[in-house]
Design brief:
Elements: H1 3-17, H2 34-37, H3 45-67, H4 78-125, H5 148-173, E1 211-212, E2 223-224, H6 274-291, H7 299-325, H8 330-355, H9 359-380, H10 393-410
Antiparallel strand pairs: 1-2
Biased composition (Polar residues): 209-222, 242-251
Protein name: Bestrophin, RFP-TM, chloride channel-domain-containing protein
Region (Disordered): 209-251
Amino acid sequence: MSDTGTKGSAKRTLTSVFPSLRPKRKHLRKYSWLPDVFRIKGSIIRRIFWPVTTNTLFATIIAYAWHNGRRIALTNSIVPLLSVVVGLILVFRNGSSYDRFWEGRKSFATVTSNVRNLSRQIWVNVALPPSDQEDTPSKKGKAPILTASQLQRVKSEALHLCLAFPFAVKHYLRGEDGLNWSDYHDVLPKNFARFDEVGYQKSKTDLTTSYNSISTKSSGRSSPDLGRGDATKRVRPKRSKQNLPSQSTPLLSGAVTHRTVEFRPFADDTSLPLPLIIAHEISRLLFYFRREGLLETVGPAGTNAMNALVQSMVDNMTAMERIANTPIPISYGIHLKQCVTLYLFALPLTLVNDLGWMTIPIVTVVAFTFMGIEGIADEIEMPFGHDPSDLPLDRYCLDLKEEVLYIIERLPESGEGIYGYDDGEGDD
């Protein structure tokens, strides 16, 4: 048999054993034009159908009056003046809306990246101290802090907290308060506390952190309870400004009261979003890992890097919160619609003498174009909802969930399996 035949049979054998070695066919995305032209689903047509129909009916009335001999017309110098103003406003409106959409996508992508990095670092870098280290508890006559299985469980709960952060951010941006959502079921750690509507208050002497019983019987030491933080609100909706206590400014109030903030000693007057609770618990876990010597492989610099990732997660959540809580000013949107309507109502009056009945389709096309641009801008300016044009936050969270659960279930942790592999060649 020739060398060519031998190489060919060997190649066929390798590809049959390892399917990943087979050459992949490139699937080019087909560029569709006509299908998108006649597409209704996913377009803006349904959103602007009635406003465009209204302008079409108005153009029809003008054309019918012209056909019956009534000369209702405007000079052509009006339309160019309005078209410049309307064009500038529409460009700014569309650009600002897409900036909000793109900034929301970038911020959520940064949160996803931080969760991936933090999950990997916790899973790999958090480890029991080496047994030959001089200052370990075993050298001092004490039992280890945690066993390997207990530490793995704590790390698994830490990764679940990291995974719960983007889920909580998604619900928080959508105004979906509480923990009674189906996607929290297998994401939040099982020992994550569910506080009621009132919450609880801590006494002056109870200022230390609480711990649960994930410890060995001989040592009596414990790890933090993932959920007994300082939160007094996790399931209640966030208070609106209308529900805040009455306030007055000393410079503007009379002589009766000089109070600016009304203090209340009850926990039900405070609130905190769920993502900040989760970030707080992650920071407490990192502090626990560092205090108990479980981050000696990375040292203070590595611990600071992990805390920086948590801080970046909160920063990007705040950026998305700014987008969700800062809509386009209503006066700007109203003025834009008024200008577009004025322009579209003036358009048939200037075209009817020259075009006659053709004014109707031309006005319809122009109205569809202008109102479509404004409709798209209005649809994407709040990118965190459930509309088809909004960001697919559910899919982003589910993809991240698959990745983190894969780390927990299949990838080795810490120093496990780092001694290389046997390539079958023997020692040199």
